[in-house]
Amino acid sequence: MAMEHVDVAVVGAGVTGLAVAIAVAERGRSVCLLERHPRPGLESSTHNSGVIHAGIYYEKGSLRARLCVEGRDRLYAFCQAHDVPHERCGKLIVALASDETTELDALAQRARGNGVDDVELVGRDFIRRREPHIEAVAALWSPSTGIVEAEAFVRALARKALELDVMLLPGTSMTHGIPSESGIEVVTSRETFSTHLLVNAAGLYADDVSAAVGGEQLTIYPVRGEYAELVPAKRHLVNMPVYPLPDPASHSLGVHFTRTTWGSVIIGPTARLMSSKDDHETDRVPLAQFCEAVRRLLPAVEPDDLRLGGTGFQATLSRPEEPVVAFLIRHDRQCPRMIHAAGIDSPGLTSPLAIRAAVRDLVEDVL
Q1: I need a surface site. Which of 51, 75, 247, 251 has the fewest CB within 10 A?
Q2: Residue 239 sits in a domain of what CATH number?
Q3: Residue 119 belongs to a domain
Q4: Which conformational region is residue 303 in: left (phi greater than 0), alpha (psi within -120 to 50 degrees), or beta?
Q5: Number of domains in the chain
């Protein structure tokens, strides 16, 4: 059979890959989207807290900050247009003691530097009105933060991609690629085709994809996050996302509460660097350890009020104890026909509709 040809091949049908495929197809390009799982979004895209981040935490002027703020606004508009369950519910980042209030103020200044102008430092009375069961002396109130049903977001993106004639190939892994001056010959578990450009949006496996095409050496560190949940009888104790101050040593936002769009309350995630990219269950964090973290914010909770929740992985470009490496969105330095959209960890669920514009521009520069 004659080899098929497409303008752009995207590897990975998570929210980033789906959004990129849509953006490229909207320009009239032929697009093939490879996904090794039976359907899109089965990894990090749907195994997270489901929070729409405002853009508070990230270094001023950084790519991560810009894509979060832009992506947040695009995501709210997309959810509204495509009937994706979501809520602009706001968030509290709380100080548990008076000596933590200076950290809240520094966080507020960082947020405003990123263009998040609606944050507000609030006191105990404000907290009590919105979260009467939370113990805190002060908080940073972020009205732009929200929640989204990640699975519904993935489905809406997939529908949009199919409407634009994106060729979605589920259950198809890329085995290797053979680059040339004019493109890349892509060999998959099912077929072989050629493409002018390949976009590496493979999440946890972006380093493997880069190596398979002869690109530069990347290292993706799989950081597993684990969750607990409040039992149904205790869900009334939390009304919105409530976060502690972030931990600068581990770059973690801390174990926090999130009310989902369907009414449950999840607690987490923890953060642990794993040797395996698909080990979701070995040596799970015990509920007693979750309870210890929970009771600092929510003293009314007892161990029996918790049950184990799910797990998920972040695909990070740095170890938890190392300086944060920002999203990798650029051409590969060894294989110019490959574009990376890799290392998209938090706020990865908030940012894909902004990331797609950045990748689309890189594609158009070549095509």
Answers
A1: 247
A2: 3.30.9.10
A3: yes
A4: alpha
A5: 3
Whether 235 and 279 map to the same domain: the answer is yes
Q: Rounded CA gap, 177 and 211, in Å?
A: 9
Tell the burial category of 65 from Cβ atoms under 10 Å away from its Cβ (0-12, 13-18, 19+): buried
* Per-residue pLDDT tens digits of the chain, which is 367 residues long: 345 899 999 999 999 999 999 999 999 999 999 999 999 999 999 999 999 999 999 999 899 999 999 999 999 999 999 999 999 999 999 999 999 999 999 999 999 999 999 999 999 999 999 999 999 999 999 999 999 999 999 999 999 999 999 999 999 999 999 999 899 999 998 899 999 999 999 999 999 999 999 999 999 999 999 999 999 999 999 999 999 998 776 667 888 999 999 999 999 999 999 999 999 999 999 999 999 999 999 999 999 999 999 999 999 999 877 878 879 999 999 999 999 999 999 999 999 999 999 999 999 999 8
> 155 and 125 in one domain?
no
**118: containing domain:** 91-143
Separation between Cα atoms, residue 327 and residue 61, nearest integer Å: 13
CB 193 within 8 A of CB 9: yes
* 3-state DSSP assignment of residue 91: strand
At 358, which amino acid appears?
A: A
Q: Examine residue 126 and state whether it is found in any structural domain, yes or no.
A: yes
Spatial CB neighbours of 317, under 8 Å, sequence gap ≥ 6: 218, 219, 220, 221, 325, 328, 342, 343, 345
Cβ-based burial of 158 (10 A; exposed 0-12, middle 13-18, buried ≥19): buried
CB within 8 Å of 276: residues ≥ 6 apart: 222
Token pair for residue 145?
């933060």
CA–CA distance, 345 with 318 (Å, rounded to integer): 10
In a domain, 247, yes or no: yes
The CATH number assigned to the domain holding 158 equals 3.50.50.60
**Phi and psi dihedrals of 172, rounded to 5?**
-130, 115
